[in-house]
Specification:
Strand content of chain A: 15-25%
Oligomer: heterodimer
CATH architecture of chain A: 3-Layer(aba) Sandwich
Number of domains of chain A: 1
Largest interface: A-B, 12 and 11 residues
Helix content of chain B: 10-25%
Bound molecules: flavin-adenine dinucleotide
Number of helices of chain B: 11
Structural class of chain A: alpha/beta
Strand order of the largest sheet of chain A: 1-3-2-4-5
Distance between the termini of chain B: 38 Å
CATH topology of one domain in chain B: FAD/NAD(P)-binding domain
CATH architecture of one domain in chain B: 3-Layer(bba) Sandwich
Number of strands of chain A: 5
CATH superfamily of chain A: Glutaredoxin
Largest sheet of chain B: 7 strands, mixed
Largest sheet of chain A: 5 strands, mixed
Radius of gyration of chain B: 24 Å
Order of helices and strands of chain A: EHEHEHEEH
């Protein structure tokens, strides 16, 4: 099973990703809206993507890392947007770290696309 | 100092050069580049398939501009589609991902590198506009940064293409396709061999660069397949030609006949003249004979001229841009009964239909059709609509605009002066022409000698426009709208009655008033108006 990680906010993310020793394995980063008190994200699209991603993760390389990032409020989102490494434009977004592969918005809800991201080798 | 030169359609359409190093661009234009055929032959599309229980409705061989466009449209219309795409590495070992020539080793990297060169020129120009650089001598270009940025962009396009196919439920098979019979393709994939049967097939294999049959060509030569991803040539620099004034600027273009054969020759000569003024050397009517590696790693190139005299010189790189051959043989089209035309590799299809009724072809593989991405895309889309969408609209290969991204760009649409004269007789043709001065050229005192345009029209009546030709900055942007106007039967009369946007360069087309026949000086008055 992939190694799952969870971080909140921009600074935590930067620190985490810098220190993460992925041992050369693929790292997927999933950006979504932060959770509300009831444990659900405020972002509907993220809610819809969640089960799809969870399910498709079963097909991913078991040595891969999966970083679940709750981006936080507006200001924090802007920081993610400006960072050339994340270039976050939409929530949710899932990227293959340091690679061109990414899925944005409702693409993250489509099992066949999430599957492609998790299984394509290149 | 060095520059990237982008010659669209000189058959190679892009050239790089190296810092302090000679970069020989070898080019012969011996095959017919594009011809805008006027004849629209009618054919009956939609044959009945004798393969009723085929696995697919459409199998496309080649995931480039034409193949992908047809595949996506067919799938939108409900067809079950598979696309085969496989890139055989170049002799130098270069390979790339899904998307075909344009995305990986054609239009896109070419335009990006052209832009890099233009930016270098802009830096130079900006000094006279008051921009100050703390350390002007230290402005230099880093090839690796550019190459990496270009390659990263390409990789993201490859990915987006895969996502699109998956999203549209087009099956992508990363394998080399080969016909075994008219209804079966065999794909050679990493996982092994696989057979696909289909009701219709689309041959969209495009082409790959030709090499001359001379010693050393394959071992030491590179082509447009390799140039955009060259691994950090040690001390490469890449800047626009504007930077190179007075610097040992040393790119050589060897041409078998004339540059840009098939294009309007007056315009082609102006493009070549502009490049020569920027320091590129031309060796006309020469034929390369051999390439040998010297002990110091440099390349000795020998060639003969038109009088059969032998010459040789030492270069760092030799790039062949001798046209492209269609990959029909590799795909064994003969096994499907598909006939080839001309040089024996292209397909002469009527409305994209080959002689085998359920097998179609689009893109660069077509005989005597423009080798351009949008041509392949539109033809592919229209074909899919005819096959699966009850449409009867055929592709119109006439009046397709194109641009050559040389440092000063050349854009054109419609007929060349030569073709118009041949087709209608010089007495029935009127040529309007003008040299013009782009406003922004004055301050940096850029060379305006080659900023020239020409309108080819019928002589009688309102003078229907047959062709428009423009050399100058942003020529592609200038010519695109006029291409639409020509499709709407533009006349010289309408053109002259169109109010321009001032100050632009495109407005120069609305100011034409001097005909070649009049013999008047086409140079602009000394002041701007
Ligand atoms: C350097 C350069 C610059 C260019 N610049 C421009 C430009 O500025 N503007 C413009 O409009 N056009 C430009 N072109 C032309 C443009 O790239 C082509 O016209 C266009 O790509 C043709 O599309 P296509 O679908 O015919 O084939 P391609 O895009 O070449 O795609 C064919 C694909 O099929 C694959 N293939 C071949 N055989 C098989 C097989 N048997 N099995 C599986 N896969 C196979 C190939 O690997 C390739 O991926 C340029 C071309 C070059 C070389």
């Amino acid at each position: 099973m992939v190694k799952k990680h969870h971080v909140e906010g921009y600074e935590n993310f930067c620190k985490f990703i810098k220190e993460l020793d992925s041992e050369g394995q693929v790292v997927y980063v999933y950006f979504c809206g932060s959770k509300l008190e009831n444990g659900e994200s405020w972002c509907d699209d993220c809610q819809r993507a969640k089960p799809v991603i969870q399910k498709e993760l079963e097909n991913a390389d078991p040595n891969a890392h999966f970083v679940y990032v709750e981006v936080g409020g507006k200001i924090l989102i802007a920081l993610f947007r400006k960072d050339p490494k994340t270039k976050l434009l939409v929530l949710p977004t899932i990227i293959k770290w340091k690679c061109p592969q990414r899925l944005e918005g409702d693409q993250c809800e489509k099992p066949e696309l999430v599957n492609l991201l998790f299984t394509e080798e290149d | 100092m060095a520059a990237v030169f982008c010659f669209t359609n000189v058959i190679i359409r892009s050239v790089c050069r190296h810092h302090n190093k000679n970069f020989l661009i070898c080019q012969s234009v011996n095959n017919q580049l594009r011809s805008f055929s006027n004849s629209i032959r009618k054919s009956i599309v939609k044959p009945l398939s004798s393969n009723g229980d085929a696995e697919y409705d459409l199998v496309v061989i080649g995931g480039g501009s034409g193949g992908l466009s047809a595949a996506k449209e067919a799938s939108n219309l409900g067809a079950k589609v598979a696309v085969l795409d496989y890139v055989t590495p170049s002799p130098q070992g270069t390979k790339w991902g899904l998307g075909g020539t344009c995305v990986n080793v054609g239009c896109i990297p070419k335009k990006l590198m052209h832009q890099a060169a233009l930016l270098g020129e802009a830096i130079e120009d900006s000094k006279s506009y008051g921009w100050q650089f703390p350390d002007p001598e230290n402005i230099h270009h880093d090839w690796e940064t550019l190459k990496d940025a270009v390659q990263a962009h390409i990789k993201s396009v490859n990915w987006v293409t895969r996502v699109e196919l998956r999203d549209k439920k087009v099956e992508y098979v990363n394998g080399l396709g080969k016909f075994i019979d008219p209804y079966t393709i065999q794909a050679q994939t990493k996982q092994g061999e696989r057979k696909l049967t289909s009701k219709y097939f689309l041959i969209a294999c495009g082409g790959r660069p030709r090499y001359p049959d001379i010693p050393g060509a394959l071992e030491y030569g590179i082509t447009s397949d390799d140039v955009f991803s060259l691994q950090c040539p040690p001390d490469i620099g890449l800047e626009c030609a504007g930077f190179l004034r007075g610097l040992g600027y040393d790119a050589t273009v060897m041409v078998r006949s004339v540059p840009l054969r098939g294009f309007d020759q007056q315009m082609a000569n102006i493009v070549a003249a502009e490049m020569e003024e920027k320091g590129v050397k031309f060796l006309e009517k020469c034929i390369p004979k051999a390439v040998e590696k010297q002990p110091d790693g440099k390349l000795k190139v020998s060639w003969t001229n038109e009088n059969n005299e032998e010459f040789s010189d030492i270069y760092d790189n030799i790039l062949f841009a001798m046209g492209r051959r269609a990959l029909t043989r590799e795909m064994d089209v003969a096994a499907a009964g598909v006939k080839v035309a001309g040089d024996g590799e292209k397909i002469d299809a009527v409305n994209e239909q080959t002689n085998v009724p359920h097998i179609y072809a689009v893109g660069d593989v077509l005989y005597k059709k423009p080798e351009l991405t949008p041509v392949a895309i539109v033809a592919g889309r229209l074909l899919a609509r005819r096959l699966f969408g009850n449409s009867s609209l055929n592709m119109d290969y006439d009046n397709v605009a194109t641009t050559i991204f040389t440092p000063l760009e050349y854009g054109c649409v419609g007929l060349s002066e030569e073709t118009a004269n041949k087709r209608y007789g010089p007495d029935n043709i009127e040529i309007y022409h003008a040299y013009y001065k782009p406003t922004e050229f004055f301050i940096p005192q850029k060379n305006i000698k080659n900023c020239y345009l020409k309108v080819v029209a019928l002589r009688e009546g309102d003078q229907k426009v047959l062709g428009m030709h423009f050399i100058g900055p942003q020529a592609g942007e200038v010519i695109q709208g006029f291409a639409a106007a020509i499709k709407c039967n533009l006349t010289v009369n309408i053109l002259m009655n169109t109010v321009g946007i001032h100050p632009t360069i495109a407005e120069e087309f609305t100011r034409i008033n001097i005909t070649k026949r009049s013999g008047k000086d086409p140079n602009p008055a000394s002041c701007c108006s």
